[in-house]
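Obj: model holo form, ligand = nickel (II) ion.
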Amino acid sequence: MSSVEESVREETIRFSVSLPRPLLDELDRRVVKKGYASRSELVRDLIRERIVEETWERGDVEVAGVLTIVYDHHQRELTQHILDIQHRQYIHVVATTHVHMDHHNCLETIIIRGMPVEIERLSLEIGGLRGVRFSELTRASRVQN
Ligand code: NI
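Output (holo structure tokens):
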């Protein structure tokens, strides 16, 4: 990429937006609450979040997800089931972290790459196992700029 193209790509454009007062107040409350330095930073992040959501909804490019689960270590054969699923899907399972929270509860984060439908399916399969007490998928994707 030439330096001209690079500078165009990195260029930041200032534009004005008209908002009803209540919506602007809401925006400003979020800026303070979430510790943003400016309205612009919050708006940029909101747009990026929407882009990630739409990338998942479109479903036509590879994305990444982090599945967080809490499960009962003593549930019969559950640990083995979770491992079996991960081994079967080894192309998609990039990494896992396991934390023993207490005598009974295990916390595991599973980083998964693939098409959205594949990640959703794998997450549902693991999250639906008997003895999995909590399951939440964080959806991520590449975001330009
Ligand atoms: Ni454990």
